[in-house]
Amino acid sequence: MNNSDCGYCQGGEYLAKFGIKICDLDVSQLILFKEQSKPGRCIVAYKDHVSEIVDISDEERNRFFADVNRAAKAIHAAFHPDKLNYGAYGDTGCHLHMHLVPKYKDKDEWGGVFQMNPDKVYLSEDEYAEMIEKIKACL
């Protein structure tokens, strides 16, 4: 399945609006979220254009959560957050995905409400590349 307006399905300029593909995992892709006010924030997006976790088999769900776990371990190893939050949203972009949001006690929002896109911190291409290599080294 595929959706012509979906950044996860189309990649390229659609994905570039909010993220950079890091790599393919077992049944998903790992994406670096461009807004990096929470260093190491990523998205794990399921390989097919399905809206809900209930739209895939139990086996696929388990494989998807194994991908989430693998990505979470890499983020912990690379960036040492105090906490990693997990968010599954999709009312506007109905593609099964999970946000992995590192939280740091010395940063804003600790103990507060999560902002989907605070639109505060964007990096240079070199800084994104360095961050991606750091994550890949820990996968």
Structure description:
With 139 residues, this protein is of the alpha+beta class. The protein has one domain: HIT-like (HIT family, subunit A, 2-Layer Sandwich). Helices cover 32% and strands 21% of the residues. The chain has four helices and five strands. It has a five-stranded antiparallel beta sheet, covered by helices on one side. Helix 3 packs across helix 4. The protein is globular, with a radius of gyration of 14 Å. The two termini are 27 Å apart. The relative contact order is 0.20. The mean pLDDT is 93.
What is the count of structural domains? 1
As a percent range, the share of strand residues is 15-25%
Give the SSE string. HHEEEHEEH
Radius of gyration: 14 Å
Count of helical stretches: 4
Task: Report the CATH superfamily.
Answer: HIT-like
Classify the fold: give the CATH topology. Answer: HIT family, subunit A
* Nearest-integer average pLDDT: 93
Strand order in space, largest sheet: 1-2-3-5-4
Distance between the termini: 27 Å
Derived from helix and strand composition plus strand pairing, the structural class reads alpha+beta
| Shape category | globular
- Low-confidence spans: pLDDT under 50, at least 5 residues? none
Percent helix among the residues?
25-40%
CATH hierarchy, class: Alpha Beta
What's the story with the biggest beta sheet? Answer: 5 strands, antiparallel
Which CATH architecture would you pick? 2-Layer Sandwich
What's the total number of strands? 5
